[in-house]
Amino acid sequence: MNPAHRDSEPNGISANVSNWLVQNIDGVKAPFTFTMIAGGHSNLTFAVMDANGRRLVLRRPPLGHRLASAHDMAREFRLIRAINSTNVPVPRALGLCTDESVNQLPFYVMDFVDGHIIRDVEAAGNLLTPAARRRAGESLVDNMVLLHAVDPDEFGLGDLARKDAYIERQLKRWYANFKAQQTRDLPGMDLIHDELSKRIPPQHETTIVHGDYRLDNCMLNDDGDVVAVLDWEICTLGDPLADIGMLMVYWNGPGDDTSAWSNPTCTLEGFLGRSALTARYGEKSGRDMTHFDFYVTYGYWKLGCIIEGVYARYLGGALGQRDPEELEPFKVQVDNAVIRATTMLEKLQ
Q: Which strand (E) or helix (H) includes residue 101?
């Protein structure tokens, strides 16, 4: 057997990938082991270890139904390679494969970054001290400010997307994606889309917008500092306030009111609340936060669109044959996002 191959490649990785790695990534040595990294419901992420113990990460589109706009490996690779040249922490991009004979679909490889991904209360309690938890929130916001300060033109990303009418374009894009994957009648999603379209705030500037910036899409060190921002698949150019709005959709600090999408991880001692993080962003960035509630409302609606797509892919077999009851939580998450966005709309009246 070719020593570059292993008989136990996980679903989503073909034997040809090992040969491609040897031929295209400097310094790696076969054989390789591939392990799917837990977390995320869209593009698949694999930890790769070579014969010398060097660790890499491979990203590829999901199995089953895909949306080209959300699963474009070349675009995602281009983004992180460009961000490598800024002061925003991101894994080093190493190689892109667009030859679909290798693994059926394009994929890219980047360096493995050592650190913590905090997804639950247990991890936050065991891995971070109260001081590190406070720093995690501060660093999360500070690195978002750094990202929004990057000049897209200076780093070759000026043509990544149109620079005007960001929210208008996003509403159109996510609504089309939602309609293409809708699994049932959800009139609330239609109503929220229409109401948001009537209330779009003026866009005063255009920056890089991550699109899904949250605690568990960043890697932290022991002190709580962000050492890598991950998951750039829906990054684009647009209104930076959409990123901080989306972060608040996920965040639930001590004393914050709970919501359908509250994450109890951040309720532990040390973590800052939503208002403190929002104020820090406004102070550090110098941006006007007058219309901030609009962006939070939009974040809930957009999340409903994203999770409906995940639910549709899983119903379609992206995880193999599953009992529909096992997938019910995704349906409930979409319903809850609609409820929260509808409640937020009332604040905009």
A: helix 100-103
For 130, the 3-state DSSP assignment is helix
Is residue 305 located within the same domain as residue 339? yes
| Continuous H helices in 199-327 | 241-250, 274-285, 292-315
Is the Cβ–Cβ distance between 209 and 243 less than 8 Å? yes
CA atoms within 13 Å, Cβ hemisphere of 341: 28
In tens, the pLDDT along 70-114 reads 579 999 999 999 999 999 999 999 999 999 999 999 999 999 999
Q: What is the DSSP letter of 42?
A: S
pLDDT in tens, 129-187: 999 999 999 999 999 999 999 999 999 999 999 999 999 999 999 999 999 999 999 99
Place of tokens 């977390």: 39
For 278, what's the count of Cα atoms within 13 Å in the CB-facing half-sphere?
A: 23
Site of tokens 């190493």: 94
Q: Which domain holds residue 306?
A: 121-347
pTM: 0.89
Total of domains in the chain: 2
Task: Please write the tens of the pLDDT for every residue from 241-300.
Answer: 999 999 999 999 998 987 656 678 999 999 999 999 999 999 999 999 999 999 999 999
Q: Check: CB of residue 29 under 8 Å from CB of residue 50.
A: yes
- What is the tally of helices (H) and strands (E) in the chain? 11, 9
Tell how far CA 11 is from the center of its chain: 22
By 3-state DSSP, what share of the chain in percent is helix, strand and coil, each rounded to 5? 45, 10, 45
Residue 178 lies in a domain: yes
